Amino acid sequence: MKKYLIAGLGNIGLEYRNTRHNIGFKVVDHLAEKHNVTFTTQKLGDIAELKHKGRTFILLKPSTYMNLSGKAVRYWLEKEKIPVENLLVVTDDLNLAFGTIRIKSKGSDGGHNGLKDIQLQLGTTTYARFRFGISNDFAKGKQVDYVLGQWTEDEEKLLTERLEKSAEAVLSFGLAGINITMNSFNNK
């Protein structure tokens, strides 16, 4: 059975639960809830195992905080013997309009500290990443407040549909592969 590690990035703690920066947690939470699997706290994160159409998806919410996500990602890749090409990292992106999905098979960290640490820990930029647009609707100098801020009422209304589309994209990554997933979901 093919295994995939789906690492949803975010920060632990109630104060971060519903923030834009925690969209990675929200995506894997939605996927787990939809398929009736639960997370358990294990080494370096919360883990849920989802079996779907002959594939195993290990859902990871690192407990290392966003900026040190690479340690948890590397540990779970090694522990589960998952090749890096079966890794998908789900994170927020300020440079994309709210709810926009952008999936790539490799690339730079784009200034994202979570991706920067994963790149450092894995020694490569060749791993799939799923960027969820949170837009950049903030005043100069207010980026941290915006990213760590709560969703607006309008964003909350649209979030359910966007999470559903995100869950479909994650499963497509494991079932159809990165190229078909990029063609089917990017900018949708």
Automatic annotation (TrEMBL):
EC number(s) from the headed UniProt entry: 3.1.1.29
Active site: 21
SUPFAM superfamilies assigned to the protein according to its UniProt record, in alphabetical order: Peptidyl-tRNA hydrolase-like
Swiss-Prot/TrEMBL GO biological process terms: protein quality control for misfolded or incompletely synthesized proteins; rescue of stalled ribosome
Site feature Stabilizes the basic form of H active site to accept a proton, where: 92
Claim: Flavoprotein is one of the keywords in the record: no
Coiled-coil intervals: none
InterPro entries hit by this protein: Pept_tRNA_hydro, Pept_tRNA_hydro_CS, Pept_tRNA_hydro_sf
Any one cellular-component term (Gene Ontology): cytoplasm
CDD domains: PTH (cd00462)
Keywords, in A-Z order: Cytoplasm, Hydrolase, RNA-binding, tRNA-binding
Locations listed in the record: Cytoplasm
Catalytic activity: an N-acyl-L-alpha-aminoacyl-tRNA + H2O = an N-acyl-L-amino acid + a tRNA + H(+)
Protein's UniProt keywords contain Disulfide bond: no
Function of the molecule: Catalyzes the release of premature peptidyl moieties from peptidyl-tRNA molecules trapped in stalled 50S ribosomal subunits, and thus maintains levels of free tRNAs and 50S ribosomes.
Known partners and oligomeric status: Monomer.
Protein name per Swiss-Prot or TrEMBL: Peptidyl-tRNA hydrolase
Biological classification of the source: Bacteria, Pseudomonadati, Bacteroidota, Flavobacteriia, Flavobacteriales
Gene designation: pth
